[in-house]
Amino acid sequence: MSNSRTKTTANQKLKKILIVAAVVVITAALIGLAVYNSCANDGTALRSQTAMQSENFKIDGAMMSYLYSVNFQNFSGYFNSLGVDTSKSLKTQKCPLTTNGTWFDYIMQSAESEASEILALCEQAKKNGVELDADDLKTIDTYTEQLKETAKGYGYSDVNTYLYALARNPVKLQDVVNCLKLSSLATKYSQKFNDEIDLSEERMEKYYEDNKESFDGVDYYTWTVKAEDFEAQDDKTTAQLAQELSDAMSKVESVDAFVSMIRAQVEADVVAEEGETEEALEARRQAKVDEAFKEHALKASLPEVVAAWAFGDDAKAGETFVETNDEKDIFTLYMLAKESYRQDEKTRNVRHILFSNSKYEDDTKAQEVLGMFLADKTEEKFTELCAEYSDDTGSNTTGGLYENVYPGQMVAEFNDWLFDPARAEGDTDVVKAESTGWHIIWYLGESNITRWQVSAQSALRSADYQDMISQYSDAIKTNDSVVNLIAG
Question: CA 88 to CA 204: how far, in whole Å?
C-alpha cells in the first residue's frame, strides 16, 4: 500500500524490468528525439559483444544498454534536485554518491548489480531444471505488444525508434525480449526458491536464540531535565534546581508516578494559545507525554550505559536510571516500563481498496463500492472490485491482500481500525486516512504468525537468498570495454 508499508523483495526488484518495458514514460524535454532519430548506429557492435556472462548465460552490449536505461529511468525523477543535466552525457558529470565517479558510473553500477543477480538466478534455474513455459512466453509477448502500443501512443514511427530514445542507445525490440526472457527465468526461479525456504518454528526459534539482541526490546519512558530551563534563585543555581528535580524523579517507585511527574512538567510548559480550545490544548499536552514513551526499544538503540542497565539480569519495571553530562547541568532520566521481551502478539490479515485523496474529494465512491461488496461478500467479489477501483499499486493485482500485518506498519488511521481491541473477523468499513485517502478495509482475522516471527522469516529469507546468489557471483564476468561503449 503506497505510503503505508515499505517492503522490497528480490522478486519485486527483478520484476521492474518487465514493468518498465510496459509503462515507462518519455518526454521530448527529457530525451532529445531528433538527436536519436538522426543517429545511424544500429547497435551491431554492441550486440556482437558480451558485456556480462556466467557459465551458461550472457548479456550482450545492447541488452546491457537496455538494463542501464531501466536504471536511468528509475533515477531520473531525482535528477533535477541533484543538479544532473540530462541534456548532457552523464559520463561528463561527477556523482557525489561515488568516489571520483560519474553519474554514468553510479547508474551502471546499479545495472551491473541487477544483471549479476539475474545471471546468478538463471544459473540456479538451469541447475534445478526450471525453464520458461508457454504461459511465461505469452506474458513476454503481451509486454512487447504493450511496448509497441506505448511507442505508437508517443508518436514514434516504430518501436525500435522509441527504444532508441528510451535507452539513449541503439536498442531494438529483440534486445528487450532477450532481457525479458532472462529476467522472467530469474524471477521464476526466485519465486520457487522463496517458496521452498525452511521457515519451520524450530528454525525460527534457533535464529531467535542466536540473534536475541535483534528481537528483544524494552519499554521505557525518558525525560530530560536541563538547567537552562530553570531560573536561578537566591540560594540555588539553575544546575542545582535541575539536580533536585532529577533526584525527585529518580526516586519514584512506579511507572505511573514517573509519568505523573512528566505530566506535571508538560502542563507547566505547554500553555493555551490564543483562541485554543481545551480539547486542542489537552491533545498537545498528551502528544508531549506520548513522545516520552518508547516501545520495544532494541539494545542497540540505547546509549551503552543505559542498555547495560535496561537489559541487565536484575532489570525490573519501575526502576529508574539517570544519565548526566560532564557539566552536570543536563539529566536524562529513564523509567523502565517493561523488561526485555520479544513481540509474541499475533499479526493480522486484511484486504483493502484505496481511493486516493489525489483523485477523490470525499468517500462517495468508496461507500458505493463498499455497497457492491456487501451485496456479494466474497473473496472473488472483493478481488474484482480491488482490480477495478484500488489506487494501491502494491496490492490491486492481489485482491488488496496484506498478510501478517503488525501494529505500526500501516498508516495511523488504518492501523487504529485494524488493531482496535473490539475488532472482529469479517468486519468491513470505510476508513479515512489523512495521508492516503479512503480505504475499504476487510478484516480477515489473526494470522498464526507472531510479530517476531515476521522479522525472523524476513531475515532468514534474505540470508538464504544472498547465500544462494553468492554461489555464482564470483564466477560472473564483466567486460568493461563493452560496458564503456554504452552511451551515457
Answer: 51
Same domain, 158 and 30: yes
- Cα separation, 118 vs 123, in Å, equals 9
Residues 406 and 332 in one domain: no
Whether pLDDT at 32 is above 50: no
Give residues with Cβ within 8 angstroms of 346, minimum separation 6: 446, 447, 448, 449, 450, 451
| pLDDT tens-digit readout, 421-435 | 999 999 999 999 999
Judgement on whether residues 164 and 301 belong to the same structural domain of the protein: no
Together in a domain, 177 and 231: no
Nearest to 31 by CA among 102, 86, 81: 86
Q: With beta carbons less than 8 A apart as the criterion, state whether 46 and 170 touch.
A: yes
What's the domain count of the chain?
A: 3
Tens of pLDDT, residues 366-385: 999 999 999 999 999 999 99
For 179-258, strand residue ranges (E) read 217-226
Position 45 scores a pLDDT of: 85
Burial (CB count <10 Å: 0-12, 13-18, 19+), residue 135: exposed
